[in-house]
Write a structure and sequence with these properties.
The chain has 21 helices and no strands. It has about 525 residues and is mainly alpha-helical.
Amino acid sequence: MRGQTARNVAERARVLRSAGVVAAITMISRVAGYARDVVFTYFFGTGLYADAFVAAFRLPNILRRLVGEGNVSAAFVPVFEHESVQRPEEELWRLADSFHAAIAAVAGLLTAAGMLLAPFLVRYVLIPGNPDAWQLTRRLVWMTFPYLIFIAAASALMAILNARDRFAAAAFSPVLLNLTMIGSAAFMLRTEAPILIWAGAAVVGGFLQWASLVPHAGRLGMRFWPRAGLADPALRRIGRLMLPGIVGVGVTQINTLVGQLLASYLVLGSISSLFLAGRVTELPLGVFAIAIATVVLPLMSRQAAAGDRSEMIDTLGFALRQTAFITLPATAGLLVLRLEIVSVLFERGAFGPVSATRTASALAGYSLGLIAFAGVRVVAPGFFALRDTRTPVLIAAVAMVANLIGCLALMPLLGHTGIAIAGSLAAFVNAALLIGGLRRKVGRIGGWRLVASFARLGGAAAVMAWVVWGVREGWLSSFAVGNPARIAALAATVALGALTYLAAAAILRAPELGELRSWRSRVAP
């Protein structure tokens, strides 16, 4: 028992270290992504060009999620871990080569289909409520779709690197996409059609993201041609695992498409306002929640393969508590400071006060579901580790229906903000059903401990929100828009909020603080 406890502590410490590395690199990527969004909003605001690009780029991004990112890792990592026990190293990397080629080939076929069907998709799926944007959106679809090939291949390499606990290179690669698009500003200043330069930069950035991972995978043993062929039984197992995941991710992405489709019938700029609000909420979600989900999947897959389900559930509970430790105060802060954050981030150039107010209201709607969005990212790998992708699919379908009902009910009352709130409500439905389904599958998962932990952290976040609200009303609001001192004032307010939260969590004896101190001292050299 003592050896098992020591092993758990060591594994959790390694998860924290790996998550910390991924989170730090992801923070760099998010900062670069913020700079990219600043360039985008400076040139295009939330008007016709912004809505057209967001609508056009949505489809290759959705397909990227179907054949890439988490779905690839969820299917590949458990099978790769299983095969690594039975195969020699050379055969293992033949499998990886074939997997990479297969993902790229599927993405190529989807790209060809998307470009061929672009006129239909634009008019009836992407932006049906705004005929003035149809011609431009169709042209942007044709330009941006090849991005899918490069980013899907990059996602396959990310999964392969993650399976060998090489998280840093995969986490850093999106920085190259962001830097490429930021650099395109120099060319946009010299052209009468800057939106076309922006679209081209997205494709170039996708290529660079893939190319940056090739040397890392090559050092592990990949040779980048399908040496094993498509007849490899393990490759077929990966495909079978991916199919339900594709449906599940597809169901989730339908929620995004539904929101965009409905927003196209609202005032101009609703689509891009929802997009930018989603980008802001991705900062706390991506920096820590996705980072911890990324490093937890291989660990839980190894624990499940070894038959250590109790350790797997313990790891899952740890991941949920640590995720809540970050997302609950982030939710409170985004709700209280939503307008100030959006204004400081974007209000310049073509992005004026109306755009800021519209985006801030959407940000409030998305912020309500931040812990649920994060919970889905963390709990779903529990099913994937057990090689069950069917259950998350069925649950995602229920969440899709909940999202549609929420949109139709709230949009007439709240406009695009209602669409954001509906997305948050659907995320809570998804997270709750996932937790319940996992409990039925493996038994108790420490639910009351999670509830108690969330209650303490929620109380600390409420104290923080009260303090930040007072500072905003009494001091931060005195700084005019465009005043450089407002940036420093906002940063100081956020820092005060973070210190308040940590102090309140300590007073309330939140277990996460104690766990962090204990693991740090036990693994310190």
